[in-house]
Design brief:
Order of helices and strands of chain A: HHEHHHEHEHEEEHEHEEEEEHHEEHEEEH
Mean pLDDT of chain A: 96
Low-confidence stretches of chain B: none
Low-confidence stretches of chain A: none
Radius of gyration of chain A: 26 Å
Strand content of chain B: 5-15%
Largest sheet of chain B: 7 strands, mixed
Mean pLDDT of chain B: 96
Strand order of the largest sheet of chain B: 1-7-6-5-4-2-3
Number of helices of chain A: 13
Oligomer: heterodimer
CATH superfamily of the domain at 85-341 in chain B: Type I PLP-dependent aspartate aminotransferase-like (Major domain)
Shape of chain B: globular
Structural class of chain A: alpha/beta
Number of strands of chain A: 17
Distance between the termini of chain A: 51 Å
Number of strands of chain B: 12
CATH superfamily of the largest domain in chain A: Type I PLP-dependent aspartate aminotransferase-like (Major domain)
Shape of chain A: globular
CATH class of the domain at 85-341 in chain B: Alpha Beta
Distance between the termini of chain B: 14 Å
Radius of gyration of chain B: 25 Å
Number of domains of chain A: 2
Number of helices of chain B: 14
Helix content of chain B: 25-40%
Helix content of chain A: 25-40%
Strand order of the largest sheet of chain A: 2-10-9-8-7-3-4
Largest sheet of chain A: 7 strands, mixed
CATH architecture of the domain at 85-341 in chain B: 3-Layer(aba) Sandwich
CATH topology of the largest domain in chain A: Aspartate Aminotransferase, domain 2
CATH architecture of the largest domain in chain A: 3-Layer(aba) Sandwich
Chain lengths: 455, 484
């Protein structure tokens, strides 16, 4: 199987027209000393049927069919059937970046609608066509703030996803930038620490709403603080929780970023994801990434094009606002169709269901002997449970014995939080699953406490 | 502008798409979990439409797109080859699609196996010693490569300041250089369109961290001085980076890791057939030689050395440049690339490159009498022609590109590389038939004749597309980028 239509006859005719004797002659520009002398060492090719059978077997080595109570930025949400039908259209799947707008109106209008949805969700003035993931979007937001303010220091709350913080650190590693991590107080950003860390060289403050622990942050006074010193407020948001929470625009955000995976994109072991990026009007020309705009054609009919391309790498090269070229367009398409299918009511309902079920799970578990709420604050989306045995140990037992992915061990990311379990319940978790989850947690913990030697 | 074209314009209060169950508590009860001052005042105004309306709307939009399943798509350096459907089917197997990335490693044995084996295949194909699948796009791969270069030099005492880049390079190269905190020094291509050892020798010094080369370059030419260039670069203590955008010309023919390159980024969405999705997601794996392995982004996929040889994600990488993605890259595209390589095998992959080169040279031959060919030698997988002759007759490369759309062809990459005026960069790929190439050439020649007879007409092309030529100036000036 090769997907190559050329027959031997075709090749003969083509070589003749080119004026060479054989295919090897076309490799003349490659010095023969560096040409491979033996074939690549790869497994023998398989037919479609054989390969699919083999790959299905490999896929079954994954432990799937776990009831997922883990979140941490990506969540196990229900995906509407119609979404699959639209997303399998080759017109969306196999098109390139819309460089010839006249034959890419489908893609361009979807981007415009995506931008509209992100603006409506966040209250911001402009959103781009997508970034790689929430983490790189956050890193690009920091870049924008550094470029806009021409300052060299940024503040990041340590309640921002540790994955985002890692990526930001990597993205800034070639530049001379001071990163100050603001500690938390009972799970929320310590505003006193923010106040004392801000100086006239601080480009931005990055906080998350809700934060990595699922807790609601008091963004507005923090945004006020950073604005007073001339820096920018960057807010990382969850698109589902955003349906219930006060918009970042009202909270004073200058840049909003987030992970769009919850909007209809499968978990896929963490990729592809969908970064979204929105700004206030004043910052549009410093935005990274592609931007679709509505315009008219020669006959005055409405249509869409890519615009403000002079910000981008293919025009501005080393002076571009970002190096991004390929983005996550198909994931942005997914999110756009997802939001259309759910609509105003549906999106709010999903957010309420997550709130309901996560609280239900938390109520049940926190009342078990040895378990409690880790932090006192108000939470949406997910929450941290204090566990009587290390969370990592609990997670392992829960997988093997009960077929439940209990959550995320926070000891992985926050030294000292080994007894912190980050739990999220989406609309997909049934009451029966939540009840079974609580029962299993109690059993697993008490067994481990009774017979520690077995571990 | 009265027609309702946006999904938001089609919205009517009260219409429902996908129904969701009722929560167990009332809305008010639930909202009470959120203190009043943190709550939204009004619901986010998402479209209110039925499922049927959603289908008609987006299917209606989809058919306005050109795509590879519909027709020829000769965008240079983009490798718009056919995307096999089996790869998509493999990527959507529930065992892969429903895996949470933060679940313990041992629950993801199948996914890790795919990643491990794909890394192995990419090592073999490229001749490098280690591969990371974490970068999710070509530009992110470049950025990772440059941070590795920085980390390597820093380890040796001086991160250095400059990166050399030929004038034919993709714009992402210099943009990534800036992001990594380096300064771009541009090198001129020689009269044959490639880099001469002399130019490199003249530009390089002990503050040069690396030379970034696209090979074959964006003119579709193999950098045939590569061995000498690599020697000069390494003698200066610098590293040699390869932009692998054009790797489709080299499968089974040349292993970049064996001819002097130290780092390479792959574009799995070009060479290994993963679909482009209207602009992404891609996948930009990075390969390195042994001495650069410690710097790869963490986590790195490793094998336990105990008896069960279990795969695990190794975060204990003290020299790593760090993470560039939340998780392990665009895993679904890794599955697709894996399936593609397993389908073709060694012989099939070599045939890919041989036929990509054959198709490009054949198409070039069909067109060379009718267009300027600034670099008319044997090309690799793509070639660049110039529409200067036509421009003198009154129609620019852009006009010709737009006219091509009327005949069901996508236009080639235009006005790039920058060193060729009125450039058409044409990459046919191996999955196109001789008939398609001939039909495209005939059309382009006919358009060229049209330029001679009625250049003015072309200024208004295209005529048969879903919309006519769009006003980009108005778009930028009035900036309508969301529905209000």
């Amino acid at each position: 199987m090769s997907y190559i239509p050329n027959t031997d006859d075709d090749r003969r005719i083509m070589l003749e027209k080119i004026g060479v004797k054989n295919i090897e002659e076309l490799q003349k520009p490659i010095p023969s000393a560096i040409q491979m002398k033996s074939p690549l060492d790869l497994p023998a090719p398989l037919s479609e049927m054989e390969l699919l059978r083999e790959m299905e077997e490999i896929s079954l080595k994954n432990k799937t069919e776990l009831a997922i109570f883990a979140g941490g930025g990506v969540y196990d949400h229900f995906i509407p059937s119609a979404l699959g039908t639209i997303l399998s259209r080759p017109e969306f799947v196999t098109a390139y970046t819309p460089y010839q707008a006249e034959v890419a109106q489908g893609t361009l209008q979807v981007i415009y609608e995506f931008q509209t949805n992100i603006c409506r969700l966040t209250g911001m003035d402009a959103a781009n066509a997508s970034m790689y993931d929430g983490a790189s979007a956050a890193a690009e937001a920091v870049h924008l703030a550094l470029a806009h303010t021409r300052r060299t220091k940024i503040l990041i709350s340590d309640t921002v996803s540790p994955l985002y913080r890692d990526v930001i650190k990597t993205y800034l590693s070639g530049l001379n930038i001071e990163i100050v991590v603001i500690p938390h107080n009972h799970g929320v950003t310590d505003l006193e620490q923010v106040r004392s860390a801000i100086d006239d060289n601080t480009a931005a403050l990055l906080m998350a709403q809700p934060n990595f622990f699922g807790l609601i942050e008091d963004i507005e006074p923090a945004a006020d603080l950073i604005h007073k010193s001339g820096g920018l407020s960057i807010e990382a948001v969850d698109p589902i929780a955003a349906a219930l929470l006060k918009t970042p625009a009202i909270c004073g955000a200058d840049i909003v970023v987030g992970e769009g995976q919850p909007l209809g994109i499968p978990l896929n072991f963490g990729g592809p994801l969908l970064g979204f990026f929105a700004v206030k009007k004043e910052l549009i020309r410093l935005m990274p990434g592609r931007l679709a705009a509505r315009t008219i054609d020669e006959e005055g009919k409405p249509g869409f094009v890519l615009t403000l391309q002079t910000r981008e790498q293919h025009i501005r090269r080393e002076k571009a606002t970002s190096n991004i070229c390929t983005n996550q367009a198909l994931c942005a398409t997914t999110a756009t169709v997802y939001l259309a299918l759910l609509g105003k009511e549906g999106l709010k309902k999903v957010a309420l269901l997550c709130l309901d079920k996560t609280h239900r799970a938390a109520e049940k578990i926190a009342s078990l002997p040895g378990f409690s709420a880790y932090f006192p604050g108000d939470f949406v989306r997910e929450t941290v449970i204090r566990t009587p045995i290390p969370a990592s140990q609990l997670i392992e037992t829960m997988i093997d014995r009960y077929g439940i992915l209990a959550g995320i061990d926070l000891g992985r990311f926050y030294p000292g939080m080994e007894h912190g379990l980050l739990v999220a319940a989406t609309e997909k978790r049934t009451d029966a699953e939540i009840a079974a989850f609580a029962r299993a947690m109690q059993e697993a913990a008490s067994e481990a406490t009774l017979s520690p030697a077995k571990r | 502008m009265n027609k309702q074209i946006l999904i938001h314009e089609k919205s009517r209060a009260g219409r429902i798409g996908t129904p969701m169950p009722e929560p167990s508590r009332s809305e008010q009860e639930l909202l009470n979990f959120i203190p009043r001052k943190y709550r939204r005042d009004v619901d986010a105004p998402m479209p209110e439409v039925t499922e049927g309306e959603v289908m008609r709307h987006y299917i209606g939009l989809s058919v306005k797109n050109h795509h590879i399943d519909k027709g020829f798509y000769p965008l240079g350096s983009c490798t718009m080859k056919y995307n096999p459907k089996l790869n998509d089917r493999a990527a959507s197997l529930p065992g892969f699609a429903e895996q949470h990335p933060l679940a313990p490693c041992r629950t993801a044995a199948g996914s890790l196996q795919i990643m491990y084996e794909l890394e192995g295949y990419l090592k073999e194909i490229s001749g490098f010693d280690a591969v990371s699948l974490q970068p999710v796009a070509g530009a992110q791969g470049e950025f990772v490569g440059l941070l590795i270069i920085r980390a390597y030099h820093k380890d040796k005492g001086n991160p250095r300041r400059k990166i050399l880049i030929p004038d034919s390079a993709h714009g992402t190269n210099p943009a990534s250089v800036s992001l990594a905190g380096y300064k771009t020094v541009q090198i001129k291509s020689n009269d044959n369109g490639i880099i001469s050892p002399e130019a490199v020798a003249a530009a390089i010094d002990n503050e040069t961290a690396a030379l970034m080369l696209t090979n074959p370059n964006t003119l579709g030419l193999f950098e045939s001085n590569i061995v000498e260039v690599a020697r000069i670069v390494h003698d200066a203590g610098a590293l040699l980076y390869m932009d692998g955008a054009n790797l489709n010309a080299q499968l089974g023919i040349v292993q970049p890791g064996k001819i002097g390159f130290d780092i390479l980024h792959f574009n799995l969405h070009k060479t290994f057939s993963t679909p482009h999705g209207g602009g992404g997601p891609g996948a930009g794996a990075v390969g390195v030689v042994k001495r650069l392995e410690p710097y790869l982004p963490a986590p790195v996929l490793s094998k336990k050395t105990d008896e069960d040889n279990r795969l695990f994600l190794d975060y204990d990488r003290p020299k790593s440049i760090g993470r560039v993605h939340s998780f392990y890259g665009n895993f679904a595209n890794s599955i697709r690339a894996y399936a593609y390589i397993r389908t073709l095998g060694a012989k099939g992959l070599r045939e890919v490159s041989e036929n990509a080169i054959l198709n490009a040279n054949y198409l070039k031959e069909l067109l060379k009498e009718h267009f300027e060919m600034p670099y008319d030698s044997i090309c690799q997988h793509e070639f660049v022609l110039s529409c200067t002759r036509q421009k003198k007759q009154g129609a620019k490369a852009l006009d010709i590109a737009k006219r091509l759309l009327d005949f069901g062809f996508h236009a080639p990459t235009v006005y790039f590389p920058l060193i060729v005026p009125e450039a058409f960069m044409i990459e046919p790929t191996e999955t196109e038939s001789r008939e398609t190439l001939e039909a495209f050439a005939e059309t382009l020649i006919a358009i060229s004749a049209e330029v001679e007879s009625d250049a003015e007409k072309l200024h208004h092309a295209p005529f048969t597309t879903p919309v006519r030529r769009l006003d980009e100036v108005k778009a930028a000036r009035e900036l309508d980028i969301r529905y209000k």
